[in-house]
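HOLO CASE FILE
Compound: pyridoxal-5'-phosphate
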Amino acid sequence: MEKYFEFLSASLAEEIASKIETPVYVYDEQTLRHSIERILSFPHAYGFLARYAMKANSNQFILKLFDSMGLHFDASSGYEAQRAISAGISPDKIQITAQEYPHNIKELFKSGVLFNATSCHQLEQFGRDFPGSEISVRINPGIGSGHNNRTNVGGLSSSFGIWYEWIKDVQKIAETHKLRITKIHTHIGSGGDVGVWERVAGLSLEAVKHFPLVHTLNLGGGFKVARTPGEQTTDIQRVGESVKKAFLSFAEKDGRKLNLEIEPGTYLVAESGILLASVMDKVSTGKGGYTFLKLDTGMNDLTRTTLYGSLHPIKLYPKNRKTSHEESVVIVGHCCESGDIFTPLPGDPEGIEPIKLPEAQIGDLLAFGAAGAYCSSMSLANYNSFPRIPEVLIRSNGKLTLVRKRETIDSMISLECDENL
Ligand SMILES: Cc1ncc(COP(=O)(O)O)c(C=O)c1O
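Model generated. Tokens follow.
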């Protein structure tokens, strides 16, 4: 897991902490560029497009970089689409796949933003708003892949997409409103297993057969980045080859040479981010108890651990000393909340499992690796009134750029008011 810290040497970590203070997210441009290059080499039979699932990290710098390298965008709300447009992304490069029918769909659709209906009701709403238009439809192909019901985005326990058995209803709604369904979308978060991708591609192609106007199949994201020693990063080339085979064989039988879209979030940004924090206290509960390191960050900045029990690689940067002695520690955040723990028992977010680290002292820096995806963007803004934290970018030329400022108390409370309604 050391590789996730390669772009942040001890001296650079010290420099960032002294210039901007901790906690701070640190991103590495070079690592971002390498991830994009790998995604753009995804094997495919005919046309190919990669959309970045911007919910993973929506900082403007990242959106602009990805745009400049040829990616399009997946937005998960009308607000997210607006945010991408504000960053300079052309509306026709944005497709919305959202749980909530966007409040601003009229303005967005008019400007060129694409829409992917994720329920029959959404399809109906879109049909009433834009009869005769082109649309994409998200299908739940019947299988899932997440490790529990909360991370499952396909199969019986998922509300995402239209259940594959309701295709007749989809056709009926489309007919009523003269909608042209030209794209099918599935996203079950297929992970790194080639077999799962093959099955999902097969089931999705089955769905395509019911829609003669479809020219594009979007297989979503879900490519894995190993964040713990037991996990494996997806082999993009192997997955791509199996999907390519499925598209070739579909074309032979059906005659349609389908375009492929994929929609990675995690794979593009996870490795390029680090959450850099400081150890601000160290306490113990005596014999039979634990040693706790208390940080100046917490579940408000990095929520995935509390929410899903997701673990991140951790590195201690001992200040001005060499240390060979290790100790077992429980790492906790600064929120007054018992769930604010970064070292839960795997599979039991409420349990505690100490980890081994070099002996820590108050004032040391401590970093969470592979924290570029669903960390800053998924933060619980302002819990305990902690401000949202800054983001620093290490440019390809080694220079440091601040790409988000630390929130101030004034901006935190600026929307509070006392107005008659
Ligand atoms: C519709 C859609 N596409 C793509 C993604 C990206 O998934 P991942 O970050 O696992 O690649 C998500 C994530 O939730 C999603 O909901």
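CASE NOTES: The two ends are 54 Å apart (CA to CA). The chain has two domains: 29-264, 270-406.
CLOSED: yes
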